DNA sequence: ATAAACCCTCGACCTAACTCCAGGGCAAGC
DNA sequence: GCTTGCCCTGGAGTTAGGTCGAGGGTTTAT
């Protein structure tokens, strides 16, 4: 099957403008044109596009994705490089997940305070302490 | 204790420019100035800054963080709003983690192929298929 | 009392990743 | 053969989140 850019936009959830932008940025060297100069996407192109969105959705920069696609265009000889890229990216993703989880834990502690029955009291005390710290140092009190 | 912007930058891993940028954007209404107009950070300010970086590290936009801080400045009366914001943000974080994990699973399938002993063969076949698809549709073959 | 190291503001500049628009070519239905 | 709806390019504009430099005041050590 051949798909127009509009059909691909619908299938991939990327906008037409984004697809053209990706092409301009060299992410879609595999997309051919028909006699009128229109982009003609094949099913194979859609599979590569799927890979691109996977990489993008996991936070890879367009510049790196372009490099990965360049390896793909190069053929089977670049398998080691692709393997290395994906393995490194995989580690980056997992590290980022851990970083987010650590921060989430901190936020959950804040939520515990807000959810506690003494929330108002705890907040009031903390605020009084922050005010006192300002006053003790001769600073203007931003809490009024 | 009172800290200069430089000391805070070192403690928080944010650059001095970023701290000033956050202040300009209204994220640091709690930071007071000394007689010379220099920012004077207290320990309480550092705790709030820690909250800000937690929110930022989990993907919250500066505009939302500003709103959260505005609630904090408002005092204990805004506890319900803060609770709502953090709870909603928590859900956003978890959803994003799931989204990333789903995409990671896809990438792992690609990696499985690259790691397989028949990697080169599999890639070669896939490429031949993609080429054939182009030719069959009278398109130029971008794989040479 | 002077040099070095800070601090301030303001405004320009930057990067990534789009998004939009103008101007113009093709395609499909009536 | 005309209208409507696609498609194209090039280039300008946008948003988020900084980053940098100029010009000028302050603090600290010698």
TrEMBL record, chains A, B:
Keywords: DNA-binding. CDD domains: HTH_YyaN. InterPro entries: DNA-bd_dom_put_sf, MerR-type_HTH_dom, MerR_fam. SUPFAM superfamilies: Putative DNA-binding domain. It comes from the Bacteria. The keyword Nucleus does not apply. Gene3D superfamilies: 1.10.1660.10. Pfam families: MerR_1. PROSITE patterns: HTH_MERR_2. Residues 1-71 form the HTH merR-type domain. The keyword DNA-binding applies. This is MerR family transcriptional regulator.
